[in-house]
Structure formats: structure tokens, C-alpha cells
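Hi everyone, sorry if this is the wrong subforum. Our group has a chain we'd like a structural model of before ordering constructs, and none of us has done structure prediction before. Sequence below.
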Amino acid sequence: MMRKVWVLLVDASGYVLTPASSVQLASESDVDDLKDAVKTKYGDSHLAGIAPSDLMVYLDQAAFDVKQSPLKQDSLIGDSGASMADAFIVEVPVKAQQPRGDLGTASSTLLQEVTSEAIMKKLDELLATINSKKRDFVAFSEMTTEKGKTLTEKLKLPLRPIVLTEPKVTSTKRKIPAFEWDNKLSGDKQADRYTAYLETNLRDTLKQCGLALVALEHKNSLLSVDDQRLPFVRMLIEVKKDLANRSTARIAQAMAELVAANIKAADETPMILLSDLEKNWILMWIREGGIRSLMLKEPANAFLVLREALVKWDTAGGTVRIPFFGNGRLYKRVKISDVLPPCEDETADTLREMMERYRSIESEL
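Answer:
Right subforum, don't worry. Here is the predicted structure as C-alpha cells:
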């Protein structure tokens, strides 16, 4: 019987090359079969020129972090890798050449340049394009895995998953049912229903914090939303019914939205929730050294973390607390301007200068 097995590609340092994605394997498959499936999936991109035997597979993120021995090729995969949170870690050797892709627009080409001189030159070209009213842009909906990787590489914001064993929700009082999608309804009707679902489960918290849930389904650009509350945004919620099947692209889009919101919200350090409102709940925020991600399966656990973050937003010192992990371990949220790497070129002191100029540009990253 075939089943979905989740994998996460990283390099030797732990840099995430692709968001968690899945391959189809028989239950009795071994690690050798898993390597072959991963090679087939990424053979034309991340694993071009790399043999399956060169890959190293770890049971999970925890095993990789402590540098346990990789799994043997004849080890059975069993029930492992059944979810994004429990994905196998596949280490790609250094010789793998990561594809850059042709982003094809002024703003995304900007992100492909390596030197600060080239970045500033491209930024000037982009400003000139905007001033001439011939602007091109990359919409969030068109943000692919490769474009997302280019963005995070140039900003030095690798995706850093938090590895934990999520507790089961057995209490009837705490349990929250997953959202029920109705395939017969139009997109607008679906949006009305899941917005109501979110409001129902966050109502008390929103009231306590003096916050509002604002629906933006019909807005093409987060950066061009005409809402005076946007500079104070604390949480983005991106609902994608197809998340389980298109997790790689959807996570790339969410990361781009998170970066844009962090820039737009002048004095806040917003988070983003990417979810199908069923079994996939992914929270992300910018921290020193990368973008933190927390993958959960239980709606009750996801809403618990959301409520905790919102209620203690002003008193927790810019931290995110995970109540059911590490005795309530805290994770820091920061502004992107505080973690941008310095420029090496004398024409620009730091990338912060570039980002300050970039604030006024209504284009998608």
C-alpha cells in the first residue's frame, strides 16, 4: 500500500534547501527506496548530478541536529515521516549545485545579485521603472520555491524548523474540530466560512487584546493594502486548502509575505500562520539567524500558541512561547532590519539602507 512520506532537504550545515514535501512510497520501503524517490522528485533541480547513494537520510530533525549516524540504506521507513513535522531529513552533499532559476522581473532580479553594488544598481533601475509607470512585480501567488530560496538566501534568512513531539489533545474541553471544507461552495463563500471559523476560535483573544481580524481575500498585494492598521499588524493568516499537496510552493509564498509584512509593519514583528485549517498548521516568524517555523497537527495546539502570542505580545519582550514544549520555551521575534547582513561594498554601509529605500516600493518580493 502506497503512502505519503515527508522529507526535508538540507545541506551539511542544516540550511533548509526546500520546505518539507512528500513522496509516495510503499509501507515496506527502505531508505534506499526513499533516496530514489527523492532523487526522482528533485533530479532536475536540487539534486542535479547527484546520485541517490550520495544522499544521507536522518530519522528527523533531532537526529540530524545531534549528528546521529544517518540511516542505513536497508533500514525500513516504517511509519516514520508521516507528517511535515516528522519529516525525514535528507542531507545533500556540498557538490550539489542549487538552481537559481530565472525570476524574470525587476524586483526579483534584484535579489539574484551578489554584491551590494549590483544590488543598489538594480534597486535604482527598479525605482526608475516604477517612476516611469512601467512596473513589473512578482506576485505572492507566483512565488515559487526557487524564488523563495533566492529571497531567503540574499537576506540570509534560512528556514529553521522547531522540532518537537506535539501532545495529543484528549480533553473534550480543549479539543477544537478542524474546519470542514465544502467543495460545492465558491471561493468567496468558502472564505466567509473559514473567516467565521477563525473569528469563533479567536474572538475572546481579539477582544482582550483590542485587535481585529481583517479579511484580505480580494487584495492582490499585501504591500498595497490601503488600511491604516497595517503598520500595526501582528499576525497574518494564510489559508490554503491545498497545503498538503503544494506545501513547498505555499511555504515559499508565506515566507515572502512574512518578509513583506515585517517591512511594512514599522514597529511590529509579525508572525504568519499558514494552514489548511485541518491537519497542517505552520507558524513562522523572523528571528536572529533565520525564519523559525513550527509545524502542528492539532487545531487546539495551534490556537493555543496563537492566543498565547497575541495576549502576551506587549509584555513578553518580543518572544513566542510554546506552552507544551520545553517548559514553555521562548523564541525571539525580531525586525528584519535588525538581522540584515552588512554590505561589503563602500557604496552602501549596510543592507539596512537598501531596505529603508525599499519600504516605499509597492512590489512583491
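For your construct planning: The chain has three domains: 2-91, 106-142+341-358, 159-336. The chain has nine helices and eleven strands.
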